[in-house]
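README: folding subset

This subset contains proteins for which both the sequence and a predicted structure token string are available. Records are stored as plain text. Below is the entry for SusC/RagA family protein (1021 residues), shown exactly as it appears on disk.
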Amino acid sequence: MKSKLLLLVLLLFTSFAFSQSIDVTGTVLDGSGLSLPGVNVKVKGASQSTTTDFDGSFKLTGVPKGATIVLSYIGFRTQEVEVTGTKLTVKMVDDAKSLDEVVVIGYGSQKKREVTGAVAVLDSKTLDVLKPARIEQALQGTISGVNVTTQSGSPGAPLDIRIRGVGTNGQAGPVTFIDGYMGDLNLISPNDIETITVLKDAQAAIYGSIGANGVILVTTKMGKRNSKARVSFNTYTGFQEASRKLPMLDATEYALLLNESYSNGGRALPYPSVTGLGAGTKWQDQVMGTGVPILNHDLSISGGSDKMTYSISGSHLDQEGIVGRDKSGFLRNTARIALGADLTDKIKVKTNVIYTYVNRKTINENGLGSVLFNALNVPATLSPKDENGEFTLVPSTTGLGTEIINPLAQVDNTYNAYNLKKINGNFGLDYKMFDGFVLTSSMGFNSANSESKTFGKQISYGGKVFDVQRSSVTQGAVNDNNYSFDIYGTYTKKIANDHNITGTLGSTIYREWGNGLTATGYDVPNNSWEFADISLTKGLPETVNNTSYIYDERRLSYFGRLQYDYQGRYLLSAILRRDSSTKFGPGNKVGYFPSFTGGWVISDEEFFGDPKSFSFLKLRASYGTLGNDQIPKYGFLGLLSGEATYVLDGTLVNGRAEGQVPNPDIKWEEAKKFDVGFDMRFFNDKVNVVADYFIDTRKDLLIPGIPVSGIVGVGAPGASSPTLNAGTVKNSGFEFAIDYKEKFSDSFSASFGYNVTFLKNEVTKVNNGTGFIEGGSFGVGQQAASRMEAGHAIGYFYGYKTDGIFQNQAEVAAHPSQLALGANAAPGDIRYVDVNGDGVIDSKDRTNIGDPIADATMGFNIQLNYKNLDFAVFTFASIGNEMVRNYERVLSDANRLDYVLDRWTGEGTSTTVPRVTTGATSNNVLSDYFVEDASYVRIQNIQLGYTLSPKVIQKAGITKLRLYAGVNNLYTFTKYKGFDPGASFGPTNQDQVSQSPIGAGIDYGFYPVPRTYLMGLNVNF
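--- output ---
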């Protein structure tokens, strides 16, 4: 009996010993075998957790044998490892393309495999490689269907984002939401961004009246739960230079050409001797700097406990301009704090607040009379300064006109300043009312104050239009605010293990309000920038010298979304949004925006068989209606905002006139979006393919400035014609993207990406009375250069077709007269086509001579990793876009590009470039002679980095140290003669913000995007 009792006790002790906990230590490595710090390590079903230190090591105490440890880290698949001993080594698997990745879709999220719309995601890894000064730049060439054009290469200049073409001549850019609230993409540091999601089709219908141009959803970086404080410092410095300079005539070439021109015009030679002129002044070198600095710093601290996360960051960007140096620059400082906390098991709160300060200085650019325009047109025979050290005056002769001035003097006499202070963010709360149902509320806000000042120095350039007879200072102050309040409930239910339902129902209140004031003071003391302040000016104005405005707009919305899937195989989604806006009159305030999307995961079907080559295949389709209300405010009301002068009792009195003709019938722009596509993966998820065919039909276009009878007084200064729903535009096309990712060994891995978008843009209706809308300008005194008209691309160029050069007088005599264009033709002149066949060349022969919209855009990207080295190249191409060369002043004495050396000088000498002469010709009217193929391929970014081994840096407490060097905008392959074939800048619309596509693609001497050489450092502690 005693022996049996002793045996039982021994068995109990043995059992207890086997059930005892142990201490576990381990090391976590990334795919290349390097130590991975900051990995969350947690015992499944228990409270024990920790994070790996700088050398990837961790320790957990009191872990039961046989327990499961869960390891998670952003960018890697979450892994579970069973505890079988006291030491573990875990190699994490990259998860950049996992189908379980969560995608933000607006008022919710979905797993990537369940998404039924055309949705693309750009992550922080790509942003880290591209190092864009502006976030918009990172979208170019990385996401199909997205085209980014620069309005200018000057620091801080706006960039235009177009998703699947241009659908309107008003505000055509997408709306941006930052962590759920409406924000500005260009005022956030790229280093603060975790992901950028682009909604390209009817999936965006959840945003109703503002989603027609697409939606960009930005998710900012948050701290990670159960992680120690992580400090990250990223910095780069570099220098900029012009990516391109135009080949102009040097002094000797210019003088010889001018002599020929004067001789052909029957005038005396201006340069009887060209000896000693040499190369002369290279004006582009004079105004464009080299080694122009750019500097960026980012610092962030993040971490979290089991119940709370935090992220605090700050950034500083300082960029000087390559033209104008200290007179052109952009400074941006940001500070951000993001917090998340679980107050209880049912209530979670979060907040994200960003403060941005911007300071920007600009020079005259992108137009006739800009600094670069003058640098191209001033003769090389003139020197920058005269013998007295003063800036040389450009003669006011007929041959040089009154617009061309010394660009260095222009820069020197440029004085302006602009600063913006903005705070924006949101506060959110999630309340889990019961199992499967979460109530979410969020309040977003933006508040911005800006000040501007421009000083017009009293100066004479020798009888030019830029002469300032009286000094002045103009100052402005603007206050803009908005807030949104969202509340919505999300219910998730699984029925019988096969049916999954998610329903979302909510409401949004949005209000935007603000005011602005601009005033001008005259006779600045000492004619000096230091004294340029209205409080010091005492001069009396001769006209009205101040303006102000105030506005208040509101929008009330209700929305619902129902998502259903059967076994994750058949996917359906339906969305309906109702918007009510104060931008429209009483009869048109409300709009309804429905959409439907569906998907079929074919690879889950039994007939698909076991995945061999193909591991995933999903078909999807969508159709829906979205809206656009981005028009000038109060378009349905008549406003007394125009200026007028009246005669009262024999005295002139300043007063008001009707500033806007009302249109009470204006309503939403409506976008019908159709998309069908597929997602496919094969070769063990190494290859990922996404393809879409889309049709986007925009009807009831909101077109401002429709001409009406002058009887109503719209000719008064400040007055404007009404806004009408007067057009339809169709964009259709095909997108294709393929990514290949391969890990060849523990030391070497590579990824390749290619995407292409084919696009056709066509206006199908313009019902404004004339059948077309004009815009844009070419030269001086010529008819509008662009049109919006049915049957053509929006903003196509409208001018004369050419048919070579007249070689002799017999050809001139046999051709229809060109006298109506300004002069009789002569041998060596351009021969124009009689399009309508009426036997005379006149304005009736103007026709389509090109358009600025690309037929195809594409990106090709490569990333390589070998041991501690990483290398990346990002490229972008645009095919089929055309541009009008308008930066050359057609005056006889202006300088020219060197292509003029191939001009016609006698029969058979040239069939492409006309003769030069001071006599009257019709060679300078807008024709396809000035329209060029602006297709290009650009190496956008190339970067080489090296990450030091943790064993080298761990003594300093550093977990990661990466050094890199790179070049942005390395080189552009193009036949276009101008500075930048990728730039585009249309006339400003009445909202004074958006640019019209009617007149885009006309090059007035675009400020080139600089080539930037960078050296940087990434450090994590």
